[in-house]
Amino acid sequence: MKKMLCVLVMMMMVLSGCGSSFSDSTASTSSSMSEMAMEEAVVMDMEMGVATSGGGINTMETTKSAKFIYTADLQMETTSFAETIAAFGELVEEMDGYFQNSSVRNQGSYRYGDYVVRLPQENLVAFTEQAGELSLVTHSSSSAEEISFQYYDTQSRLETQEIKLERLQVLLQQADIMEDIITIESAISETEQYIDSLSGTMTQYDSMVDYATVYVNIQEVNKLSNVEETPIGFGGRLANAFTGGLGNVVDTCEDLAVFVAYNWIGILIVFGVVFVVYRKANKGAKKILAMRKKNEGTKQNEEE
Question: How confident is the model over 219-250, as pLDDT tens digits?
């Protein structure tokens, strides 16, 4: 009987020891799986652009400076077109800017300059003020578009993809099965393409944020719009009307001369065609008239 009790006690001790080790092993495995799940959750949250702390992108934006795209528009008049254009180019260079687009066109007797200027954002106010000293500004406007959300969202996605690429490269080094290697290399290729796309977007955003865009139109005029004239009587008004009418005639003749100079070949061709048509029509009319006269003479002879 005593021997049986001893055997039972020993079996219970062995079972309790095994149970304890099994419990520890289960707890360890459970802890390891829990840690892996947590890491997967963090990675998934990062890829979705949301922090696991619950702050999200909006919380991150509040700690960073806002991002704006600044644009401005200037409409200007000048009576000295060449001098104003030269001074304007020097101003752009002085403000560390450059011409993205520039063109000069003739309209009648006057010239028009259209420009798109890019310059550092911090120089925008000084540039518009000094441009107003070069010639008369008839219209000016400016706007600011905030792109903070798009900017920091793209930046966060780029950082996430770069971390993902590093982890994939580590997995590739550890992989020893061909199927796994092919799968990881495909994922690396897709991630690199996505990184290139996001990097291009970030470069574009940085360019638009760092440099403001100014649209400038410079018009050559005979007299500035803001010039005030003293009141005049009827005689002065009549004289001005006569002078203005004469000036309009002169301008019209000048415009006509310029038009002929640009299109003289086409004009000669048109005149040549008209002349040939006229000659043929004239000959045809003469023949018809001669035939009528002949017919009338024949009828008179028959009546006699």
Answer: 999 888 865 555 556 666 666 666 667 767 77
CA distance 17 to 251: 113
- Which range of residues forms the domain containing residue 97? 68-146+211-220
Residues contacting 88, CB < 8 A, separation 6+? 115, 131, 134, 216, 218
- Where does the pLDDT of residue 111 fall: very low under 50, low under 70, confident under 90, or very high at 90 and above? very high
Count CB-CB contacts under 10 A for residue 182.
11
SS3 140: strand
Residue 276 lies in a domain: no
DSSP string spanning 249-299? HHHHHHHHHHHHHHHHHHHHHHHHHHHHHHHHHHHHHHHHHHHHHHHHHHH
- Check pLDDT > 80 for residue 136: yes
Q: Write out pLDDT tens, residues 29-72.
A: 333 333 333 344 334 444 444 433 333 344 344 457 999 999 99
* Cα separations in angstroms, 109 against 29, 88, 135, 252, 263: 89, 22, 19, 10, 16
Tally DSSP H helices, then E strands, for the chain.
7, 5
Distance CA 169, CA 97 (A): 42
CA dist list (Å): 252 to 36, 124, 240, 248, 249: 85, 41, 18, 6, 5
**Residues 215, 142 share a domain:** yes
Reported pTM: 0.55
Residue ending a domain, choose from 220, 251, 283: 220
Give 217's Cβ-side CA count (13 Å radius).
10
Contacts of 195 (CB under 8 A, 6+ apart): 158, 161, 162, 165
Distance CA 81, CA 123 (A): 25
Residue ending a domain, among 171, 190, 210, is 210
Token representation of residue 232: 């005049």
Residues 151 and 203 sit within 8 Å (Cβ to Cβ): no
Residue 202 has pLDDT above 90, yes or no: yes
